[in-house]
């Protein structure tokens, strides 16, 4: 097994260092002197036994036309929860379904939230994901995560993904969403299609003819594709309007208050009508600054609270300028021959961890 670990610091791009002995197991770190934002990539390439499985069609699956090859992005963090409870079993279950029913041998890139990833958004808006921050602190205080130490759980996740030949990306100072948005743009520029595997609605702002989402459906224990057509049918507008609309109506889940907190009569119906007419929040605000665009309450709200709405935009918009570079080796067909062994070992570890926790013994992981 060959494991490659590299670190990318802000302001410099470093080529990965490979071990000379390709049959050996080693960890290699490449760094520059400018310590700022760190990127960690882990990938394994040893293949053990063959894996075979019959294609199980996902519920609601309507893949894009086979005109371009697909590259999948796996948003790891939200899959590690069963409802609001941290659960490695949940991650393992969704990963197993994803690899066997959805991505198969298509390239997969896993992305994890970096340390202090939401910090710059919280500086703009202290309420941003405040409830999630409190919950995370509670998890850390327990020092438990699915019957295992929190830090060790990250090691286990990296290990099973690596053994399934899935590179794991983590950029300190950035949320996984921004890393995915940045890398997705690079993938599109190379002529591929993008499929983002995540339950996070923030990714809807990226949907296009060549970008779709595949979401886990807990009630059906299936992944389901969500396309441009699905979005238009659901919202009666284009995805480009999604972000602008959420800036006006707010996002309760992410702790972003809408304009109705300041102007109660300014609701979703009014916001959707204005966005559909003007196309984007910025166009709407510019128009409202020089002429009447709606009823007096809406007109006054747009003029008097333009900075409030622009701040919401900056908080909710996915960044596409993260200092991370796509590697060609991430775009090749994924070898899935080791999937069954890797996942079996993962679930065996979870069962043993449960037994150790019940008997009060230390929870060990040997990889």
Architecture overview:
- By secondary structure, the chain is an alpha/beta fold.
- 39% of the residues lie in helices and 13% in strands.
- It is built from twelve helices and ten strands.
- The chain has helices spanning 88-103, 119-124, 130-142, 150-163, 176-189, 228-235, 240-249, 268-278, 281-290, 296-304, 306-316, 339-359; strands spanning 3-8, 39-44, 70-75, 81-82, 85-86, 108-112, 168-171, 193-197, 211-217, 222-226.
- The strands form two sheets. Strands 1-2-7-6-3-8-9-10 form an eight-stranded mixed sheet, with helices on both faces.
- Strand 9 and strand 10 form a beta hairpin.
- Helix 1 (88-103) packs antiparallel against helix 12, helix 4 packs antiparallel against helix 12 (339-359) and helix 7 crosses helix 11.
- It is elongated.
- The termini are close together.
- Residues 1-37, 43-61 and 133-150 have low confidence and may be disordered.
Tally of alpha and pi helices:
12
What share of the residues does DSSP label as strand, in percent? 5-15%
Count of beta strands: 10
Q: Sum up the overall morphology in one term.
A: elongated
User: What string, H for helix and E for strand, traces the elements in order?
Assistant: EEEEEHEHHHEHEEEHHHHHHH
Q: Averaging pLDDT over every residue, what do you get?
A: 80
Helical content stands at: 25-40%
Spatial ordering of strands, largest sheet = 1-2-7-6-3-8-9-10
Largest sheet, described in full? 8 strands, mixed
* Secondary-structure-derived class: alpha/beta
Low-confidence segments, given as residue ranges, are 1-37, 43-61, 133-150
Distance between the termini: 12 Å
Rg over CA atoms: 22 Å
Protein name: 5'-3' exonuclease domain-containing protein
Pfam families: 5_3_exonuc (PF01367), 5_3_exonuc_N (PF02739)
GO molecular function: 5'-3' exonuclease activity; 5'-flap endonuclease activity; DNA binding
Keywords: Hydrolase, Nuclease
């Amino acid at each position: 097994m060959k494991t490659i670990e590299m670190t990318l610091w802000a302001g410099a791009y470093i080529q990965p260092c490979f071990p000379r002995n390709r049959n050996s197991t080693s960890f290699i770190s490449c760094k520059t002197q400018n310590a700022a934002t760190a990127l960690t990539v882990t990938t394994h390439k040893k293949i053990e036994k063959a894996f075979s499985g019959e294609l199980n069609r996902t519920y609601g699956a309507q893949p894009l036309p086979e005109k371009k090859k697909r590259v999948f992005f796996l948003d790891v963090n939200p899959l590690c929860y069963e409802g609001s409870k941290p659960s490695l079993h949940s991650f393992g279950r969704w990963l197993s379904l994803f690899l066997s029913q959805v991505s198969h041998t298509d390239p997969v890139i896993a992305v994890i939230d970096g340390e202090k990833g939401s910090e710059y958004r919280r500086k703009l808006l202290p309420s941003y994901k405040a409830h999630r921050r409190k919950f995370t602190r509670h998890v850390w205080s327990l020092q438990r995560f699915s019957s295992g130490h929190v830090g060790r759980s990250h090691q286990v996740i990296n290990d099973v993904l690596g053994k399934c030949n899935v590179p794991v990306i983590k950029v300190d100072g950035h949320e996984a969403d921004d890393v995915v948005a940045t890398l997705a743009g690079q993938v599109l520029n190379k002529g591929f299609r993008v499929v983002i595997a995540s339950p996070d609605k923030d990714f809807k702002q990226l949907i296009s003819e060549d970008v779709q989402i595949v979401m886990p459906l807990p009630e059906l224990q299936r992944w389901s594709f969500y396309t441009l057509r699905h979005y238009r049918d659901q919202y009666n507008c284009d995805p480009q309007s999604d972000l602008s609309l959420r800036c006006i109506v707010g996002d309760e889940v992410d702790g972003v208050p809408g304009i109705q907190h300041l102007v109660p009569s300014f609701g979703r119906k009014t916001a959707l009508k204005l966005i559909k007419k003007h196309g984007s929040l910025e166009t709407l605000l510019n128009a409202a600054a020089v002429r009447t665009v709606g009823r007096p309450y809406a007109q006054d709200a747009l003029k008097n609270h333009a900075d409030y709405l622009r701040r919401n935009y900056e908080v909710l918009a996915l960044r596409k300028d993260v200092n991370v570079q796509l590697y060609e080796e991430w775009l090749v067909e994924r070898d899935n021959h080791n999937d069954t062994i890797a996942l079996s070992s993962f679930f065996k570890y979870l069962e043993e961890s449960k037994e150790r926790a019940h008997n009060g013994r230390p929870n060990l992981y040997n990889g």
